[in-house]
Amino acid sequence: MENNDYFYKFLTPISKDLAALGRELEYSVFTSPRMMLTHARAFVEDIVHRVIQSEGISDHGCNGLKDRIQLLQSYDVLPIDVCDAVHNVRVLGNDAAHNTKAFRYSEALSSWESLYLLANWFMYSYGPVHKGIPRYQEPALNSANKYDIQEIEFSLNRWQESVLQKVSEIAGQVDTNVAVEEKVEAEEVEPVIIPGDTVLRTITYKGEAVDIPFFLRDAFLLPQRFENAERFMIALGGAQQARIMSELPSDLEGMYNHVKRYKEDNDQLFFNDLKNFIKEERERRQIMQERPGELLIFFRSDYIIMTEDLAQIPLTEDNFKGFPNFLRQMQEDGMEKVRQLPQELLILAKYDRVGVGTVQKLFMQLKELQG
């Protein structure tokens, strides 16, 4: 498969949610076999419901997936190999949901192959086949393992809930192949999510909203990164509020009530700085992805590369001019050479009588030394 592609994209004309669920299953095969096996059931349930709907069969009295599979068997709808594949996914999924044993990659791959048998048969039997269906492919190990297991779990739960919700909406309705065709144009292709970029939640303030990506779920909210709300952030931190991203409420309106001598305007400044913080973090992350293996020092969204020559430079007044008190405090903390500076340079603004401006001067001199 090509980069930034996924196997079940061909299901998008049927349902972008189902295609997206297939994408998350693909990423989880080699990351968490248990997770893949557990959530594969939702994929099967969706297609089974669509078959029942297209055949105009009533599933009244069916209590679960097993009953609906048997219902289709009684009408001779499912070919034997497809029926076996569906039962394989169901049995492995039930086992993974309830058994604490370690599950193997081979079991996840068995379920993956069974999903393909079902999806391939369904598309040729009921769905629009405009560009053909790709031949069976196993997931790529190198791309799957880039995703954090918690991120995959979050995404799987999200798309499973969406798929099952739509399953319940169409349950009991009768549809035709033509009706399925009419939905093709309305469905947009679900974009591939870069590892870490899955939207974890959304934070709002007075009608404005900002998405929190998964890679920032527990990010430390360094007050110095919030240019217009630094003192407010320090005060909130003293009240055990807004220290890390996961502490923030879904709505920032009223945050000023946690601390004294601050007003509603401070909430707005905080929200504006939060949007900028997320933007800068995305830019930093892209830089790190584009320059793997490099040691970087950041000042806001700007950066320098830690070369060996730069790393060896002593943090002394001979090399850095204009802030002897700052240099002395770093030396007292054991930072004697550039290599010992933190990646987030603004952390150094914690020192006595050292502000963001002083740290910026240090950063600019570092850039000049690097040439």
Topology:
Blueprint: H1 16-28, H2 33-55, H3 65-74, H4 80-98, H5 105-125, H6 141-144, H7 149-170, H8 177-184, E1 199-205, E2 208-213, H9 230-238, H10 264-290, E3 296-299, E4 302-305, H11 308-311, H12 324-332, H13 356-370
Antiparallel strand pairs: 1-2, 3-4
Helix pairs in contact: 1-2, 1-7, 2-3, 2-4, 2-5, 2-7, 3-4, 4-5
The count of strands amounts to 4
The biggest beta sheet reads:
2 strands, antiparallel
Instruction: Give the strand order of the largest sheet, numbering strands 1, 2, ... along the chain.
Output: 1-2
SS field, number of helical segments:
13
Q: How much strand content do the residues show?
A: 5-15%
Secondary structure category: mainly alpha
What radius of gyration results from the CA coordinates? Answer: 27 Å
N-to-C order of helices and strands: HHHHHHHHEEHHEEHHH
Provide the residue-averaged pLDDT: 87
Low-pLDDT ranges: 174-187
State the end-to-end CA separation. Answer: 42 Å
Number of domains: 3
Q: Outline, from the CA principal axes?
A: elongated
Helix content: 40-55%
Features:
about 375 residues, mainly alpha, two-stranded antiparallel ribbon, two-stranded antiparallel sheet, 13 helices
Structure description:
It is built from 13 helices and 4 strands. Helix 2 (33-55) crosses helix 3 (65-74), helix 3 (65-74) runs antiparallel to helix 4 and helix 4 (80-98) packs across helix 5. It has 371 residues and is mainly alpha-helical. The model is unreliable at 174-187 (pLDDT under 50). Helices cover 50% and strands 6% of the residues. It has a two-stranded antiparallel sheet with strand order 1-2. The longest helix is centred in the last third of the chain and has 27 residues, at 264-290. The two termini are 42 Å apart.
